[in-house]
Automatic annotation (TrEMBL):
SUPFAM superfamilies, alphabetized: Glycoside hydrolase/deacetylase
Region spans: Disordered: 289-315
PANTHER family linked to this entry: POLYSACCHARIDE DEACETYLASE FAMILY PROTEIN (AFU_ORTHOLOGUE AFUA_6G05030) (PTHR47561)
InterPro entries, per database record: Glyco_hydro/deAcase_b/a-brl (IPR011330), NODB_dom (IPR002509), PgdA-like (IPR037950)
Ranges for domain NodB homology: 46-270
Transmembrane parts of this sequence: none
Protein name (database record): Polysaccharide deacetylase
Superkingdom: Bacteria
Species whose genome carries this gene: Flexivirga endophytica
Amino acid sequence: MSDTRQPFHPPSGFPWPDGKKFAASLTFDVDAEAGALAFDATFHRRMSLMTHQSYGPSVAVPKLLAMLEHHDIRATFFVPGYTADLYPDMVRAIVAGGHEVAHHGWMHEKTTSLTDAQEAEMLDRGLESLDRVGVRPVGYRAPWWEYNYRTTDMLLERGFAYDSSLLDGDVPYRFTSGDGVARDLVEIPVDWALDDWEQFAFYPEWTGSGLIESPRKALQMWSDEASVAATAGNCFVLTNHPFISGRPTRLSALSELVDHITSLDGVWFATLQQIAEHTANTLSDIRIHHRIPDPGPQPGQGGDGHPLGHLHDNL
Ligand SMILES: [Zn+2]
């Protein structure tokens, strides 16, 4: 019988660097206008909505960079190509601050509705836009975290080292698409509970439920997540969007969260690139992500009422 007087900690054996017990990474998806325009291209006519999105690169990112500098930590910024084209000086400022810039599509595309050729074009246009500001990314995060089974090989062909869009881990792992593929990627998993969109995002006739949570509540929630990551030896990856979390009270709460994480024993504050390099150099096991077989027609689903009918057949 186990000793119930001791708190439960799940088994963990991830080999973090010497002296470190868990990893923490702040990531910022600079969706800006692209995040809204991918949803509906006619939104470019809605000036107020466009300013809601441009608040991110124009107002929030400089404040976020100052906050990160204050705490002397480096973060990872996922920048769609369209955002880089509109705000090249912002990308340069992120790089000048010592932070990582990584790939996040070109127009924050809905990847589940793209053909193979369209997804390849998205990746290449994103790379070209980042190249114009001197960035060669090693990391990718699918827009809306919608990574396709085919994406792995596309990323390997383009020299990427890691992805951060999948949701099947508490710690990073190495993976590939199937037998016979010599190279592999590192996955640094994410979690919707660690995304500011679910807490705060709202814009009429575009996104959100209308409920905007208190930053106090999000701070408590994310602090608890970090505390458990520390005791479990996990990888804490927070996803924020500058147009959302750069607002004053949320930025203040985010700074408090960094104080909390910094106080935890054995923290390794790192960029995703650093975590990916460590994982690739340390782990030997490589997972294979097989496609889930099509289950075919199911009882009670008449006609063409497939539950995933909105997804494209090309996946
Ligand atoms: Zn995004």
